[in-house]
Amino acid sequence: MLTLPELGLYFSFLMFLVGLAGVMFRKNILFMMLSVEILLNAANLAFVSASRLTNTIDGQVVMFFVMAVAACEAAVGLAMIISLYRTKASIEADDLKALRG
Amino acid sequence: MVSLISQWILSLLIFFPLLGALFVALTKDVQKARHLAVAISVIEMVLSFHLIAHFNADSSAMQFAQDLAWLPHGSGIRYTVGVDGLSLLLVILTTVLCPLVFLSSYSSIENNVKSFLALFLVLESAMIGALVSLDLVLFYVFWEAMLIPMYFIIGVWGGKDRIYATTKFFIYTVVGSLLMLVAFAYLYYAHYETNRIFTTSLIELYKTAAALPADTQLWLFAATALAFAIKVPLFPFHTWLPDAHVQAPTPGSVILAGVLLKMGTYGLMRMSIPMFPEAAHTAAPVMITLGVIGIIYGALIAWRQTDIKKLVAYSSVSHLGFVVAGMFAFNELGFTGALYQMVNHGVSTGALFLLIGVVYERRHTREMSEYGGLAKQMPWYAFFFVVATMGSVALPGTGGFIGEWMILNGVFQTSPVLATLAGTGVILGAIYMLWLVLKVVWGPLQNEENKKLSDCNPREAFILGTLSVFVFATGFLSTPMLAHTEPTMKKLQQSVNNKEAYKTELVIHRGSDEPLRVMMQR
Amino acid sequence: MNYQTMLAAVLLIPLLGSVLNGFFLRSAPRLVTVTVATLAIAIPFVLSCLLVFGPVSAGEVVRTDLFTWISVPFNEGRLEIPFSLTVDRLSGILLLIITGVGSLIHLYAGEYMSHEKGVYRFFAYLNLFVFSMLSLVLGSNMVVTFLGWEGVGVCSYLLIGYWYSDEANARAGMKAFVANRVGDLGFLLAMFMSVKLFGTLDYAQIAEALTNELAANNGPMLTAIGLCLLLGVTGKSAQLPLYIWLPDAMAGPTPVSALIHAATMVTSGIYLMTRMSFMLVHSPEAMTTIAVIGAATALFAATIGLVQNDIKKVLAYSTVSQLGFMVLGCGVGAFQFGVAHLMTHAFFKALLFLGAGSVIHAMHHEQDIRKMGGLIKKMPITGWTFVIGTLAIIGFPGLSGFFSKDEILYYAWSGTFGHPLLWATGALAAACTSFYMVRLTYLVFFGESRVEHAHHHGHGHDDHHHHHEVHENPLAMTLPLMILAVLSVIGGYVSMPHAIMHVLGIHADENLITQWLSPVISAAKQTMIAAHGDAHGSAALEWGLMGTSTLIMLVMSGFAISLYKAGPKGGESIAQAVGGLYRLILDKWRIDELYQAVIIEPLKKAGDAFFKVGDRAIIEGIINEGPRGIYLVTSVLSDVQSGLVRNYLKVLFIGIVALCIWIFI
Fold first, then answer.
1. Global confidence as pTM
2. CB B427 to CB C192 under 8 A?
3. ipTM of the complex in this document
4. Are the beta carbons of B402 and C177 separated by less than 8 Å?
């Protein structure tokens, strides 16, 4: 029988896959942002579960950092999306190909 | 006082034009900026005469030397400058040509005049710096610094295809100089390996380099010689030159032919040959052969050009073939002749480019067929043209003869066959130069546009007259002119032929012949 | 003034004259220009007389060092080339000819060029030429000689192309310069070999250094020097195969042809060979080659002269032919008679050219002999002096050409390097000479007048001249003719054959020229005697050869007169009989075309090929293809860079998975 932290780890792995698929296959930047949030949260869950498993507090500390970074990232990212939408009238990632070689 | 000046004269010569460039760039009035630039270059020329006045002609040492700390201690990279018999003539050639070039720019440069003048003064600084620096890194800095102003001079004030030409010029030269940098870096570490001390002093590295095994020497020789051969330009690395010359504005062409190309031959004589005597011996037949090929190849191509500037550009390939062949003969005749021919080529080819500029400004074409019969309309112009031509074909009585005679004589002493082949360049030279004169100066005056041409104005006549005087002065006064160079050439010849390191030392000037000790950080 | 200063002045005064006329007297009146130019040659003539009849005839050698020209360390020692001048017996003769004949020609040219504008240029060139020619003969070393050697080439280039508005003239000048340059390369190589062998270029020092031992050890080298010098001679003295420039050089004003292309510049090869005689005789191969080239040129040019219709062209080919005689003389070892013929030729050929110029001047630049005839009545002085010149050149007994040419022919048979075949070639050439010179003289001065009126030609002439009748020219033109005519008559007595000297009861071992030149050529003579014995033909042979050539001369002259009695059409029957050959000779054996096709065109093609294939295709190709190849590879790689973030992420994902697999499994 799985313990709760182990379950959390497996769940975080699944969440990570979901987030990864979202980033890789969604074309809307907004959804890609959301998927990135899912990725971060998957990592958070993994940290917390691991901290619980090993009986240390480090993982939980890191989780707070990650949450703070995620909040900043969301704020900056959304601001960029708005500005992008203003200039390009689109938030499709495929329209942004200036880096193409 | 003299001693103090002697100590600082080279730094003054290097940095004075740089300072001048700043002032020229800050001047409001364009005409004033032109006058200022001429004044600066004339002062520079007068300053450079201090070198002749106080040069010890019996010594092969690096005179007027200065050795100051530059980069952090452990690196061994210092600010070391000095002139010997080899660089003295070329420094003087540079400082004398520059005022004439600034004078010629009064009419040939119309846009962005101030930037042009400032860039040109920077170029003068860099050229003198490259000629006098005795530290490899310092040399490399000046060597590359020469490239940047020239890049802009061709690229901004050039002709129709200036971007192509200037890019080509830049890339060619940079490829060569990067290889040279690798060779320098190798030497830097090789010196550390043997002496446990880092230095980039040329005088020290002469010893290190000469002691390297033969095959290493050969690689290093090849790397440096390639850099210089591209600059010369030696066949088959010459194809950038016609494009650069054709596209460059008149002052650019003059200084390119007059001084910049000499940097290549100077580098061969200053670095490649004395540093790697063993390798130089191995490579000499190849280098002479390339020189001779260049002589004939360049001459034949020059003959078939219809663009006047291209013709003269290819004639440079031919003439510099003589210089390279001469220095690789490894006797005093060859070395002295090569050095003298550098000066003569600067004078006569510089004059030819100025002459082309004179008619180009009036007619805006460089096609030979557009001209003809100019002697009727422009008698003084025709006179100067014929004088420059005679200098170029090495007529006895002009400096070109002394140079070519010494070179051919020197090459003949080592390789009669190659000298004979090179000698055919004398015939071919007459063919293409006289062909040019025939098509431009003689013949009937048919083109209506040419019937309206005015003869040289006093400014042009002054420039061309000065160069014409030089053409003949070098032809008769070779002994006093070459007196300063003799000990250096002799030492060069001895060290190469004995395959031993080239030994020289730093001194301030004749008054204090005590060697200046090179400061080194242990 | 001591002799050294005098010697320097002889050289520098013409240069001064040239500078004065060229720079400071550009707008001066013609009279001033001409006076300055003529004085700049006449004063040196006076000084030369003082020098030559003073110390030089007393056996001294006057030498002056002006300054050190070139000085380089060389093989432990030094190679010093002072700019120094020497006058000895040989350069003395040349000095007198150059300044003497030169003064006369300057005087003549002042009148001849009287209708030209901007004549200062002409006289500046002419004075500069004399300066160069003097440095050629006065130089004490090969480099100073070479200064003159090339200097005369340049002046000749400028003077041939004097009327530059006609491109043909400028081209002729260029041709002369280039052909001379080919020869100059030979001179240069000879210098380099001398440096290698002797370490010096001073004539006196070379003569000292050239011991018999050195000569024995360096036979091939000496032969090579001789042949290189010969190349120089063929260029300057218009021998086969480089003679082609001289006929074209007639494009220049006639005084130029007289001074440069008859009397002085073209004879510098003979001067050089005599100067170097001590070295040349060490190499029988070189001497034989010289003799053969000389004989071949003499005959070859004479055949072309037979059929020319331009008065100056006939004289030009005649000059080439006569130069061939001189070279033949040098080649068989009779250097002194080469010089003697040089001198007499300078007199009579200058006379002939000036006479021709006088005719051309009076005819307003008509040069076709078919349009002349009967001129002797209108121009008696020109006519009779021309006749004297003709008699001299064909070797009429008693005139100068007879002595000098017959001595050469005699030595061609009996000299050290002589051979009867050489004599035969020379005699044949002499036969041709007699024919074409008499033909020329007869067609121009005798017979019916074929002068057309209202002819239009000329350079910058005023129109009213054309309506005048042909008449004799003023004294400034005829005086030089008369002086030269006298010299043409008496000039040959310096080289009187032994046989005649015996008859006349002159008891001297050698004739005048041999005595005079003995300091210069004695070394050569000794070498020849040591190596080949004293080659002397008998008096009977001398008489026989003399008689033969006189007979040939008389027969050919008579033949020419009989043929052209009725005008220029007289030769047509013969011309038609040998049609092909006639046209070939009329086209000058098509040598120019041959050179064009064999040398110039291939070189042009090579130049084009080097440019289009060598530079543009190969070198540029390699250099441009390199970056292009790199570009191709990188453009494939850069396609991976799609710019789509999700693609990058996919790659990232694959990478992480791969990494995990690699690490954990």
1. 0.88
2. no
3. 0.92
4. no
